[in-house]
């Protein structure tokens, strides 16, 4: 069986959709915190199991010997390392065949503060002895959806990244990579460094938003302190504002710019261009 944790999340649903195009529905398990939210998946023949990262007793029932488990990283920064460890421990106890984990680009060397939980999770998976595949995902272009929409509304995208570059890809691209790995035989442990085919800067993002919306949009480069304050003024909690402001400093240093081409190779097509993703964000708004 192929078990997808977090299957009702944005990435998880895309993965399940992709799996159902390749394998019978009765081979797919949606492991979710709230089974009722997966009723539509159950109607398609997917087996739904409760699996709450913070309730280990549910995790023990979610896995079975021989399963391939996709562990989609949680979004509770500061708590998710413990959550991930609980999932891995339950998977090991069940005797699963492989754990596929959605990590972050160059998790072992990146300066990104958000990589700490991913690095710890990778270490725990390695120590568990379970065969593994690490999908080290770069930035999702959709991370910038709020910036895109605010750019259209206010005529400016704010940041502190200067001309630093981001090799993002769409959420659908990363989901397709997960599907590719989950539906083929993997020999030994594997680590994939995944990112978009080309990198772009925030000034280029502003230009794409302007072109797609037909409105003038510019990029305003702020100091780290001013950007941090702007994020707080926008309503973000201080720790979140700090994380996002620090990410822009990391972008200046090139932490999110690598384009190794492994994502394109896995999915068998070019990654989604920035222009296409911007158009999709505006269309869905």
Automatic annotation (TrEMBL):
Name of the protein: SDR family oxidoreductase
Domain NAD(P)-binding span(s) in chain numbering: 6-184
Could you tell me which Gene3D superfamilies the record lists for this protein? NAD(P)-binding Rossmann-like Domain (3.40.50.720), UDP-galactose 4-epimerase, domain 1 (3.90.25.10)
Q: Which organism is it from?
A: Streptosporangium oxazolinicum
